[in-house]
């Protein structure tokens, strides 16, 4: 078993209208409640960070999966949408939908089309964030090949 700790330090002073910070090995951002939810809207927020974590984890996992499947000349872009709900007096991330777009050479396109559904699932199953939120958040993947 491999174990690794990821450490961040978060600071906040005051009430809900204030701005805090989150700092890690690389990240250093202001945080606040999003403006559409009645907050300050400065910097990022936990919801955006969760969706960003899911998106970046999935694209890295998909790149590794495609590489192991011998697709060598690929370009990936991904749009990810996180849908939050307010129910029973609580906010909750309900669904995260990834829209990966995969560009491959024309000679690899038909092979990728046949194998893609399985490769998308493998990538999702190898993504730490997907594995961490599965059964609490629905994860949907809608891919396109270019």
Automatic annotation (TrEMBL):
Species whose genome carries this gene: Staphylococcus petrasii
Protein name: OsmC family peroxiredoxin
SUPFAM superfamilies according to UniProt: OsmC-like (SSF82784)
InterPro entries documented for this protein: KH_dom-like_a/b, OsmC-like_firmicutes, OsmC/Ohr_fam, OsmC/Ohrsf, OsmC_Ohr_Peroxiredoxin
PANTHER family associated with the record: OSMC_OHR FAMILY PROTEIN, OSMOTICALLY INDUCIBLE FAMILY PROTEIN
NCBIfam families on file: perox_SACOL1771
Coiled-coil residue windows: none
């Amino acid at each position: 078993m491999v174990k690794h700790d990821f450490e961040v330090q978060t600071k906040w002073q005051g009430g809900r209208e204030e701005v805090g910070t989150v700092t890690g090995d690389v990240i250093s951002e202001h945080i606040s409640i999003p403006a559409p939810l009645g907050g300050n809207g400065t910097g990022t927020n936990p919801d955006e960070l969760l969706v960003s974590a899911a998106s970046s984890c999935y694209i890295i996992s998909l790149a590794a999966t495609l590489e192991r499947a011998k697709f060598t000349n690929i370009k990936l872009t991904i749009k990810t949408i996180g849908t939050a709900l307010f129910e029973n007096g609580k906010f909750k991330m309900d669904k995260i939908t990834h829209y990966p777009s995969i560009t491959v050479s024309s000679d690899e396109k038909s092979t990728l089309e046949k194998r893609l559904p399985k490769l998308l699932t493998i990538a999702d199953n190898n993504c730490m964030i997907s594995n961490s939120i599965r059964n609490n958040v629905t994860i949907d993947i809608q891919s396109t090949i270019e």
